[in-house]
Structure prediction request, 434 residues.
Amino acid sequence: MEYYSTGKKAPNASLRKAVLRGLAEDRGLYMPEHIPTLPASFFRDLPGMTFPAMAKSVAGAFFGDDVPSDVLDRIVSGTLSFDCPAVRVEEDVYALELFHGPTLAFKDVGARFMARLLGYFTREDCDRGDICVLVATSGDTGSAVANGFLGVPGTRVFVLYPKGRVSPVQESQFTTLGRNITAVEVDGNFDDCQSLVKAAFMDDFLRSSLCLTSANSINIARFLPQAFYYFYGYAQMARLGKADKLAVCVPSGNFGNVTAALIARRMGLPINRFIVANNSNDVFFTYLQTGIYRPKPSIPTLANAMDVGDPSNFARLLDLYGGDWNRIRADISGVVVDDGAILETIRSCHAENGYLLDPHGACAYRALRDSLKKGETGLFCETAHPAKFRETVEKATGVPVLLPERLQAFLSGKKETVPMPAEYRAFQSLLLSR
Ligand SMILES: *Cc1c(COP(=O)(O)O)cnc(C)c1O
Prediction:
């Protein structure tokens, strides 16, 4: 399969090129040339399939021409070593828990899949030693990428993060790993980290001596595997006899997760409609109302992984519908949930249902509750474990949140970082010395 750029001004790319490049030459995002549909027999068998088995079929439909099936099966099995249960919260409302991976947030699946696929491609064609994966993070992305690539042969990861501006739980998830993961503690803010990464990609000297790639969320290998979640969510609802009129709600920031869900539907998955939950960063909501897309600077909220003022995957969503606002509005509705409503929702859902939401899941649960119609069953994505946002959740409920063992283990690990001023020369020599 070939991949085209949403910018329409770059040549098509092979899967290998799209994965190694990330962004196309015209700064557009790669999209699969066609969206394969899965056969009726697959949908008949779906409710009885295991998560890895159905993911292998989905991955095969996209990547089967480019990756041998035994390799692809190994990549999928290596990615999905944990469950994503649909949990009943109340009558007709279920949480699809996407946070049972190593870093307890939903980005694990995309990061792990991408790490393994990149490991396969680079073993074949990187003649300048290991491939260096650069990622700038303000928290969650760094931990998902670092843990996804941990121990993947042929890869070295550099996670750049702003010193003193990442929560201790988040920091511990990428500074205690060692092996092929280097945490670079930059004396600056997140934008400084991002500038250092950008400077490295523009440095011809560096690029001639190292194999460089980025692992941000626009990479096709991080983006597409998120579709797995929706097949599995649907299958679980079908097993309960609740899949007939299914409304799926996705808490969204960069719109990768929800766009992958829309692709799952194009592949034939019978999800009735989608609801996008936004926090106070409401550019998409405004687009749905007015047809005008106007990016804005992001504003900080309690659901900070969704603090995005110009969602990068909006280009993919638009492309999927040929830019047709009316068709987009027919499939997707939007709800904005502000910080006050997030706190109130965490409190009331805990009090009434005994279910503990994180701030991102709270946006989704609230948006779903506000728009569910009679006769529908609602399924919302719970994208992070509540303990990752302990302070907010405790403030809302007044009840202490226990840290799961996995987070405890990160916190008791030994922190090792490379401290660095926000100057490109220092970063360049670090990369060249490896
Ligand atoms: C990244 C993230 C989101 C937003 O996902 P997008 O695909 O960027 O829309 C939501 N919740 C959590 C916990 C996240 O880490």
Observations:
- The radius of gyration is 21 Å.
- The pocket of pyridoxal-5'-phosphate is lined by residues 105-107, 140, 251-257, 305-306, 360, 383-384 (CB under 6 Å).
